[in-house]
Amino acid sequence: MRAIESAAIRVHIVGIALDSDVTEKHLLEELRRRDYRVQPSDLRLALDDIVRKGILVQHDTMRGCRNRRTYEATPAGRMAWAEECRALSKLTHEVFGTHLPPLPPEVGLDDSQAWLSTAGPDIEDLRADVDDQ
């Protein structure tokens, strides 16, 4: 089960970094707020791996005498995040029998795997709303 939690943490890290540059401190606070027990050293290892894979980009800037490190999602990271969210939704559906939600409109991706979803007929209304934007 540790592998599932580790994957969920990585998805959260990328999701948090979608909107803006984030610091390690902010990531730790957000993960702990979501009840994940993450040590700074574990977060650093995860971040190094995620950056190495090109999902996040690391920015180092000097702030006074201190180096400030922030992370931002790359376009490939946005795509990977959407794919991981879809896979987690599918897993949830298979395990718990819940309906797959459509991808959120702010992701900006076509939901080409809609056939996987068993959401009700109102899914077309949701797509129409996205198309109108």
From TrEMBL:
Protein name (record): PadR family transcriptional regulator
